[in-house]
Amino acid sequence: MQDNSAATAFEPFNVTLRDGREVLVREIGEQDKTGLLAAFSRLSADARYTRFMAAMKQLPEAMLEQATHPSPEREFALVALAMGPDAPSIVGGARYAAAPGSDACEFAVTVSDDWHGLGLASRLLRVLIDVARCRGYRCIEGYVLSSNTSMRRLARRLGFADVPCPDDATLRVVTLKL
Ligand SMILES: CC(C)(COP(=O)(O)OP(=O)(O)OC[C@H]1O[C@@H](n2cnc3c(N)ncnc32)[C@H](O)[C@@H]1OP(=O)(O)O)[C@@H](O)C(=O)NCCC(=O)NCCS
């Protein structure tokens, strides 16, 4: 049984990355639609493909709406914001979602290309793991392209098992018991 009573209790926090740059990590909200579209437009074609497993030129409105309105009962989503010259911009995001009644949730994480290798995805995923555990999930898993060595190494470093996906030879399933 999941306990989402902590759904409003997530406190934003600052993270100093490996190169000294700082980001603010907070829950996603309706106000992030424009920032999310801008972040998506800056992603390389490769990064879009590895995240969505499809060639996507634009983020469809329905996905944008869903992304910025996570269901408090079974979803949780974070954005990482960097201060730009004018306004903060989204440089990373991570989320999990669970099917109704399930004690397992599925994560996804994306970091802007010019912010790779600084520990941001690791940090976001650690937070997701903690939140999922606190809310009563027993397992967190992700579907990752077999060729996505960066994501697979990161997941293994955090203790995830990395096994072939039974339905698709191009995919791996990374799973962590909580
Ligand atoms: C996969 C992805 C999320 C990784 O993001 P990231 O922020 O670069 O990840 P991290 O910085 O936490 O870890 C990546 C590397 O940096 C290294 N690193 C991070 N912090 C470090 C530190 N403090 N000291 C030394 N090395 C460090 C890690 O060792 C890791 O190296 P490795 O890939 O050789 O094992 C990013 O490449 C991405 O957004 N890809 C496109 C979307 C995608 O594939 N998402 C996954 C499917 S859900």
UniProtKB/TrEMBL annotation:
CDD domains: NAT_SF
Tagged with keyword Acyltransferase: yes
Keyword Transferase: yes
Pfam families reported for this sequence: Acetyltransf_1
Keywords for this protein: Acyltransferase, Transferase
Cross-referenced InterPro entries: Acyl_CoA_acyltransferase (IPR016181), GNAT_dom (IPR000182)
Residues annotated as domain N-acetyltransferase: 23-178
GO terms for MF: acyltransferase activity, transferring groups other than amino-acyl groups
Superkingdom of source: Bacteria
Name of the molecule in the record: GNAT family N-acetyltransferase
Higher taxonomy: Bacteria, Pseudomonadati, Pseudomonadota, Betaproteobacteria, Burkholderiales
